[in-house]
Design brief:
By secondary structure, the protein is of the alpha/beta class. It has 14 helices and 16 strands.
């Protein structure tokens, strides 16, 4: 039996014949005129997909021209969102299968916000189709998949691809990077990152509400499963997919990837040398598979010039909420809630550096726009101008995703993992 999700079958069913890369001709890759708009197809319209859709509708350069999801209710909701934004939902063509959307000459670019296990396959198919792409994080479900996407993107350098680790578009982190690179922190030997949430016992984290009409007649179950293991229809898995290994790696790739990405952005490092992870299901033993309590330690660089990253996340206490703290010998830099930057000079250096004073900055004062909107705007601007240098291209996104996959390996093996980034090889210590 042929694989319905293979590249060959995709090309065959889409009618692309010799290959969809042939669609990347001048009509697709030319710069847009001042009054022209990008015809965007949205693939995946669940919680995150709808969030991105609403922001995309705020960008003048973007016209939502295509919709695709495995659940009919999300299509209807997306059309209603379009109407509210002043863009008739009837103008967007509904595609029952994402491959048909990618094969459409009416679509210039795509926003992919599907469950994680689809990112690799859809990303490769979008590149094959010659479509510019905004691809949600994590970049891929495994290191091998990430490497394949990096290779494919590298072979198609004219395509404009943005991966959705939007902290890089947040003005707070741009300022944090400036302070870090100025040397005001001295030697940074430790970074702490954390993301704490709390939910009521009756409202377990990631146990999203299942639509009342969810059934095999309103859901395309096989389309949801795609490359994942085949199973009978299960609405929990479809609408609460973040809880299951087949479709997600939980906190590691849904949350931690954001903060590792920004640590890389600020410090300039791109790969840890060792990784130790631990966690478990401490709050909701409700059939979920991924931990709701997660802790990882990364070693970057070698002694004495490297630094350690301590990452912590849990879903049953929200006191400290969200943040990154860069602990230097001469000062501390904190980014809290993605809204506030704090710089605190070390008191022992007050006489040596009297000019260094505490700093407080707020993101809204620097730019009132949401960082997701800024990230999408950067992508749209790059698409319009045919500039492939987006804020977070595929190779950059890979450096944030790979340590998360390595942390999962450590967690499963109950051992430290060492990583040789140059050779792309991992080993258990």
């Amino acid at each position: 039996m042929s694989d319905p999700f293979s590249r060959r079958e995709f090309l065959k069913k889409s009618g692309a014949g010799a290959g969809l890369a042939g669609m990347t001709g001048p009509a697709v890759l030319r710069s847009l005129g001042a009054s022209e708009r990008i015809n965007v197809g949205c693939i995946g319209l669940g919680i995150r997909g709808e969030y991105l859709l609403k922001f995309a509708l705020q960008i003048p350069k973007v016209r939502v021209a295509g919709l695709c999801d495995a659940y009919d209710g999300y299509i209807a909701r997306a059309k209603a969102d379009m109407e509210k934004a002043g863009q008739p939902g009837s103008q967007a063509e509904v595609f029952p299968d994402y491959r048909a959307l990618l094969g459409s000459k009416k679509i210039d670019a795509v926003i992919i916000a599907t469950p994680e296990h689809w990112h690799h396959r859809m990303g490769l198919d979008a590149i094959d189709a010659g479509k510019d792409m905004y691809l949600e994080k994590a970049l891929a479900h495994t290191i091998k998949e990430g490497d394949e996407l990096v290779k494919a993107a590298g072979a198609n350098p004219k395509l404009v691809i943005q991966v959705g680790t939007q902290n890089r578009s947040n003005p707070i982190y741009l300022k944090a990077r400036e302070i870090y690179q100025s040397g005001q922190l001295g030697k940074v030997k430790a970074v702490r990152a954390f993301w704490y949430r709390n939910s009521l016992p009756a409202d377990p984290a990631w146990r999203y509400a299942i639509p009342a009409d969810a059934s095999p007649s309103t859901c395309r179950w096989e389309q949801f499963l795609g490359p994942a293991a085949k199973r009978p229809f299960d609405p929990k898995r479809m609408f609460q997919w973040r809880l299951y290994w087949d479709y997600s790696q939980g906190i590691a790739t849904d949350l931690m990837t954001h903060q590792l990405d920004i640590i890389h952005y600020i410090t300039g490092e791109t790969a840890p040398k060792t990784i130790v992870a631990n966690g478990g299901i401490y709050s909701w033993p409700d059939g979920r598979e991924v931990p709701d309590n997660w802790h990882t330690i990364f070693q970057y660089g070698n002694e004495p010039d490297g630094f350690m990253v301590q990452y912590s996340s849990m879903f049953s206490n929200s006191k400290f909420q969200y943040g990154e703290q860069f602990l230097g010998s001469e000062g501390t830099l904190e980014c809290l809630e993605r809204k506030t930057l704090l710089y605190t000079p070390e008191a022992v250096y007050a006489k040596k550096y009297p000019e260094r004073k505490p700093i407080t900055m707020n993101a809204a004062d620097l730019n009132p726009k949401d960082s997701v909107l800024l990230h999408l705007e950067n992508w749209a601007e790059c698409v319009a101008n045919r500039d492939p240098k987006t804020t977070c291209p595929v190779p950059v996104a890979e450096t944030a995703a790979t340590p998360c996959h390595l942390a999962i390996d450590s967690f499963r093996a109950h051992r430290q993992v060492t990583w040789n980034a140059a050779a792309r090889k991992a080993a258990l210590a």
